[in-house]
Amino acid sequence: MHTALTPMFDAIVIGGSYAGLSAATQLARARRRVLVIDAGQRRNRFAQHSHGFLTQDGTDASVIAATGRAQLLQYPNVTWAEGSAAGAVAQDEGFAVTLADGAIFKGHRLVLATGVTDELPPLEGLAERWGRSVFHCPYCHGYELDAGQIGVLAVGPLSMHHALMLPDWGTVTFFLNAAFAPDAEQLAALAARRVTLERVAVARIEGEADVVLLDGRVLPMAGLFVASTMHAASPIAGQLGCAVDDGPMGAYVRTDAMKASSVPGVFCCGDMARPAGNVVFAVADGAMAGVAAHRSLIEALQQAA
Ligand code: FAD
Ligand code: MG
Description:
It contains seven helices and 21 strands. By secondary structure, the chain is α/β, with parallel strands linked by helices.
């Protein structure tokens, strides 16, 4: 499908995972013409099961996304484009989106649901265990560790948050790893939560989640928690000039309660538009963005009349 023959969609949703699927579902049910562009790189693709989503607790994360997509594609007014959106510009009372392969699509409204990527500390053995025995979210993967030995790997002062939370999920060792030095007050708080401190730096992770220290000791853990640095997965919100806010682990797009960004006609939802996300919030934000994009299409018609 190329420029000359391309219809003007009512809305283009970039990102076809939980948030984008949810937004597109509302727009589809409003009988609008919707295009979803998706590169197929869900943030949680490293984990097999997804937890905490009512009715889907413990379901394969890819099944939730695939079911959402199959149900969305039942609507004849939905078009799916596989690929990566390389750029978007405001144009002709709407937006033109260019894909990496050069195809151009136009729509009156844009919903961005492109998610974030996680940057982990460069520690040998960590990245390959991400989503299997190394996690960031206790609510997502803490329960399955069976109240066993849990390691928290410090990346900075914010790791205190992890270290003080995780004793509710098991017996915690806090690996400071030369990334953070607790003060007296923090030491007292950690002691009150019965957290064991380990000051010797970590050499690598082996086995399931065995922490090998620089002095040669090996501390086997059931799982490890580490705060990732989050980056926008796509530069498109930035290209369009959407205002961002700084979160504890990375910047995210600023939105109002209806998930409208600072740029008229652009709605943002899911992990890219909140300080910390999960599937539940992505689906809820997506529904709000879809409804808000639909409402703004109706309002534009009323103003033109
Ligand atoms: P994503 O799911 O990340 O989807 C973004 C989509 O946009 C992707 O398909 C991507 O390819 C696409 N995209 C990006 N840029 C472009 C572009 N330029 N053009 C086209 N498409 C693009 N949450 C839970 O609730 N429960 C859990 O158990 C859980 N476990 C997790 C485990 C791990 C290891 C990780 C890292 C996260 C986990 N999460 C969990 C969090 C969850 O993955 C996210 O909150 C959720 O995926 C956010 O949904 P989203 O739709 O905003 O973004
Ligand atoms: Mg999405």
